[in-house]
Design goal:
alpha/beta, 5-stranded parallel beta sheet, 16 strands, binds adenosine-5'-triphosphate, binds magnesium ion, 22 helices, about 475 residues
């Protein structure tokens, strides 16, 4: 929304100057919030996703550079501008290193500030346009809603690009919830048959006695209850794609008939002797090990080879954990969008402050929550992750962040391997102090996260005095 009013946080300890600048900015159409110290600014940033922050560098307590850093860390897209009081460029450079976009030196004319602000916003816009274009490009590699950038997924996309346009029969294997059906649909939609139907049949969901009629159709009176003539799925899928899901559960008599239909592309309706010819591409899927079933005599070998012309194996989610954050993002966006459009709080949103809608777009998962999501082994694969995120979005009830406690219990309990098991002394030695400092910082951050920023509770978790914790935070530049 390029022309929407921009929310600006103005941080300046000199009240008269702050007031004057705030008024001028308000006159130019900015929605200005004021803070008289770095601490107040950081607290306000925690509550609201500002578009712009303008801060004095020299502040009592937390200085402007630290405010900028905190702002950029929280909102990578924020435009931060610093005001330097004493003409030393050095501090401004430091602030820019920490993420500020530009600076103006005191004393300044308001036009000067506005000019810097305008050009920063323009550059920001161009940059995000580029990011948008890049995202669109990346979108292509997702193969229509199949999310993943891990190596196994990249290989899968390559394979799909090659096989989708052909007529070859494909056998998709993978554990439950790995995306067999989405992949089958994606193949159809990337094939020349996309103008025709994609017909899906779950072979295990239909009683064996009815499956043959379901596949090939029947004529009137073929069996009790067959009141009229009926097309089967093969006929319905003519010129299109037939997706045979859970193909491993068929009886051997039916396997025989399917084999013939695949070989000859012809069959008879149940109770009829007329042969019907069709032009159908078949994609089959199974989560059982068909090769093993063949070896055990439970599945016809010739049918297996007929189906397995091109095998497509979908990796379980635990083997491509680097895709988890991407999938989480994908589902967050989807469920937020759905809630936003259809959720029960739709009317509340419309009436409420625009800030609510604004904030909603930033729904994220806390570090702690993400760590559990990464540590959990996901036996139900992507479907289970999808359900967990849907539930968490509902539980988060308008908060900005999904917390650990919004996730299902078994996922909350998933833990990363203990720190000690990951510590190894590198071949060529290490910097012990830096290492310890890092671990300390990490644990302090986790304790604050778990206690929602409450320093007293965090200190207790770490068996420290509150003052000691505050002392350490200061040294970390975080108090
Ligand atoms: N790579 C992916 N990117 C985005 N969504 C995915 C991905 N893989 C699966 N999903 C989603 O996960 C859910 C399960 O996928 P799908 O039904 O295709 O799995 P399946 O392998 O057929 O599972 P089952 O064996 O239980 O039938 C669907 O809602 C699907 O949209
Ligand atoms: Mg399925």
């Amino acid at each position: 929304m390029p022309d929407a009013q921009k929310h600006l946080l103005l941080v300046e300890d000199e009240a008269p100057l702050r007031q004057a600048v705030a008024e001028q900015l308000t006159d130019r159409g900015y929605r200005v919030e004021q803070a008289d110290s770095g601490e107040t600014a950081i607290a306000k940033l925690a509550d609201f996703a500002f578009d712009i922050i303008i801060t004095d560098l020299r502040l009592p307590g937390v200085d402007g550079s630290a405010v900028v850093e905190a702002a950029v860390e929280r909102y990578p897209h924020i435009v931060a501008i610093v005001v330097t009081g004493f003409g030393t460029v050095k501090d401004a450079v430091e602030a820019i290193k920490r993420g500020a976009w530009d600076f103006v030196s005191k004393p300044f004319q308001i036009d000067e500030l506005l000019h810097v602000l305008d050009s920063a916003l323009e550059q920001r816009r161009l940059k995000s346009e580029n990011a948008y274009l890049r995202a669109q490009l990346e979108e292509r590699y997702r193969f229509e809603g199949i999310v993943g950038k891990s190596r196994p997924m990249k290989l899968l996309f390559q394979l799909l690009e090659t096989v989708a346009p052909t007529n070859s029969t494909i056998l998709i294997t993978g554990e439950t919830g790995t995306g067999k059906e989405v992949v089958a649909r994606a193949i159809h939609h990337n094939s020349p048959r996309r103008m025709h139907r994609f017909v899906a049949l779950n072979c295990s969901a239909i009683p064996e006695a009815l499956l043959e009629a379901e596949l090939f159709g029947h004529v009137r009176g073929a069996f009790t209850g067959a009141i009229g003539n009926r097309q089967g799925r093969f006929e319905q899928a003519n010129k299109g794609t037939l997706f045979l899901d859970e193909v491993g559960t068929m009886s051997s008599a039916l396997q025989m008939k399917l084999l013939r239909a695949l070989q000859e592309r012809e069959f008879e309706r149940v109770g009829d002797s007329n042969t019907i010819k069709v032009d159908v591409r078949v994609i089959a899927a199974t989560n059982s090990d068909l090769a093993r079933m063949v070896a055990a005599g439970q599945f016809r070998e010739d049918l297996f080879y007929r189906l397995n012309v091109i095998p497509v194996q979908l990796p379980p989610l635990r083997d491509r954990k680097e895709d988890i954050p991407l999938l989480v993002q994908h589902f967050l966006e989807r469920f937020q969008r759905e809630r936003h459009h259809t959720g029960p709080d739709r009317r509340l949103l419309d009436r409420g402050a625009p800030a609510t809608g604004e904030r909603r777009r930033y729904l994220t998962v806390s570090q702690e929550g993400m760590r559990s999501l990464m540590a959990y082994p996901w036996p139900g694969n992507v479907r289970q992750l999808e359900n967990a995120i849907e539930r968490a979005v509902a539980f988060s009830a308008g908060r900005q962040q999904i917390d650990l406690t919004d996730l299902p219990g078994e996922i909350q309990q998933a833990q990363e391997p203990a720190l000690s098991s990951t510590i190894a002394l590198p071949e060529d030695g290490m910097d012990l102090d830096a290492f310890i400092t890092n671990i300390e910082r990490e644990l302090i951050e986790r304790s604050l996260e778990r206690t929602g920023g409450n320093k007293g509770q965090a200190a207790r978790l770490l068996n420290l005095k509150r003052t000691t914790l505050v002392e350490k935070l200061k040294r970390m530049g975080k108090a």
